[in-house]
Specification:
Length: about 300
């Protein structure tokens, strides 16, 4: 523990961060949900010195998440971007867990990254609220859903906020922090310090469906599905036009496959219900989700992988 404290002080000095004795000190992080985002959040946190527990509902998901992270580290070593000693050190900071109570019992911060469904998230947050220590900060990686509602389900509304990472978290250097109705300033400050300690840009938003990025991005992705369905252009030309015409790193259909079409549909349905017609999901998106063509994670979406 003493060693971790001095490590944090060194990191804070290096990154010019101030120490605030009243703030929750984050050293142990539990990520609930070891899928695309949960594993990635665990990885970037472990790289920056945090102790990470990855929890999921089945061994297969936990192992996949850990193995994906280990492969990433091994690739860094093979490209001479990391020493083997550093890799081993980071690996020892990550472990898996299948029992939720054990997973959160010594967490300073719990980040939930499970399926984008408010009912399921609320249920899991109610359990986390029962098991986590009193000082623990709660963050949801939701892309759009109500922070205030999950905060209420957790029973700790002042300790709860949105911690919205981007995909993949080890590359995308930004976190959106979202305040719910009762999120305290101390909670927000501790979370922002955690983000900055990982050299992330941080932006703060008040609760609103989709926050900043997804509120602006989802209508654009949805319009690409309408354009494809109406025969405006081929999938390749839609992507090429947006990539070179707007200088985006990838086109909207490639990006959709990367995010996961099920996740996009969940977000679009929520934004539609909360904000009105202009967010109504395109029929093609629904059809593809019904067909199980969810993008990279299922091997096929707008493209085959
Ligand atoms: N994919 C993206 O680009 C992206 C970006 C930012 C935020 N998000 C958000 O992150 C969250 C996770 O998205 P993802 O893309 O990682 O999804 P994913 O499908 O890759 O992973 C979800 C994981 O949650 C697990 N899970 C489901 N129910 C659970 C439960 N009750 N308890 C514990 N684990 C459970 C699943 O087993 C799975 O491993 C969602 O809220 C999503 O909106 C996704």
């Amino acid at each position: 523990m003493a060693k971790m404290c001095s490590m944090r002080r060194y990191r804070n000095l290096f990154l010019n961060l101030t120490e605030d004795e009243n703030m929750t000190k984050i050293e142990n992080i539990t990520v609930v949900g070891a899928g695309q985002m949960g594993a990635g959040i665990g990885l970037v946190s472990a790289i920056y010195g945090y102790n990470v527990v990855l929890y999921d509902i089945a061994d297969e998901f936990v192992s996949n998440g850990l193995n994906k992270n280990f492969s990433y580290l091994e690739r860094q070593v093979s490209k001479d971007r990391m020493t083997p000693e550093k890799m081993e050190e980071i690996k020892t900071r990550m472990r898996g867990e299948l029992d939720l109570q054990a997973a959160v019992s010594s967490a300073d911060l719990v980040i939930e990254a499970i399926v984008e469904n408010l009912g399921i998230k609320n249920k899991v947050w109610a359990d986390i609220g029962k098991y986590a220590p009193e000082h623990t900060i709660f963050g949801s990686n939701t892309s759009s859903l109500s922070i205030t509602e999950m905060a209420k389900a957790s029973g700790r509304p002042e300790k709860f906020l949105g911690t919205h990472f981007f995909n993949p978290p080890v590359i995308m250097k930004i976190i959106e922090f979202i305040k719910g109705y009762e999120t305290s300033e101390e909670t927000l400050r501790a979370a922002v310090e955690y983000g900055k300690s990982m050299e992330m840009q941080t932006v703060e938003a008040n609760e609103a469906p989709g926050f900043i990025v997804n509120r602006l991005m989802i209508p654009q992705l949805n319009e690409a599905y309408h354009a494809l369905e109406q025969g405006v252009a081929s999938r390749e030309d839609i992507d090429t036009a947006m990539k070179f015409g707007l200088n985006h790193p990838m086109g909207p259909l490639t990006l959709s496959d990367f995010i996961g079409l099920d996740t996009i549909l969940f977000i679009a349905e929520y934004l539609h219900a909360e904000l009105g017609e202009k967010f109504k999901p395109a029929p093609l998106l629904r059809k593809m989700v019904r067909a199980g063509k969810l993008g990279r994670k299922t091997g096929e979406g707008f493209y085959k992988y």
